[in-house]
Design a protein that fits this description.
- The complex is a heterodimer of chains A (79) and B (159).
- By secondary structure, chain A is an alpha+beta fold.
- Chain A has two helices and five strands; from the N terminus they run E-H-E-H-E-E-E.
- Chain A has a five-stranded mixed beta sheet, with no helix packed on it.
- Chain B has a single domain, classed as Aldehyde Oxidoreductase, domain 3 (Alpha-Beta Complex), CATH 3.90.1170.
- The longest helix of chain B has 18 residues.
- Chain B is elongated, with a radius of gyration of 16 Å.
- The two termini of chain B are 27 Å apart.
- The chains are: A alpha+beta (79), B alpha+beta (159).
- At the A-B interface, loops of A face strand 4, helix 2, helix 3, strand 8 and helix 4 of B.
Amino acid sequence: MHLKIHYYALMREQAGRSEESLETSAATPADLYGELTARYGFTLAREQLKVAVNSEFSDWSRPLTAGDAVVFIPPVAGG
Amino acid sequence: MLFRFTETAIDTDYGRSELLDSGAGGYVSFEGWVRDYNEGQEVTRLEYEAFQELAIKEGDRIIEDALKRFPLKHALCIHRIGTLALSDMAVWVGVSSVHRGEAFDACRFIIDEVKHRVPIWKKEHYRSGDSGWVNCERCAVAPDHEHAHHETAALTLRK
């Protein structure tokens, strides 16, 4: 399954890129975060993040489908 | 869009002009400025970054919520992104309403929710040469953030 990932802030720096398309067997955002943490060594635990799929907040257990765009959201700090 | 981003200085006169209403008896605004000190470190500049597509949706939801909770005439929030110097304005919130009480309350509600919910991040650059993403580098800060968010949610339920 092909997915698009966008990275922001700390996640962008740790992944070393702002976006990528990848082929994965991850069934959910939680699986995907585990897979990418193994690859990039993300320092934040999943419990500290939120996740968005197709530009809307999502559950970590939502089934992913081909073409989905995923964003991992580290703790925010606007204002 | 009631929540907007700008890559240049926030135009508060423009923001205020959007809130004018002959039925409004007053207007309250909040400006968030870049401060030179945070958590024991001397700050020299900030970088703001946003997941704009979702941030605008979530920011709009916050302001729509404020318009339902409080008897306001208008409300608007403008957030700057990019590199900001000390004393630059990072965020502006403005609300107009019939009476002042709800304007103060709504302005506070909007800035608090924006800080907790909208996917915007800031990186502080320090005099020491170090830098860090606020709320991300020290893991201990994250549970506090979650706690504050849950308090807000509990408040919502009690209303």
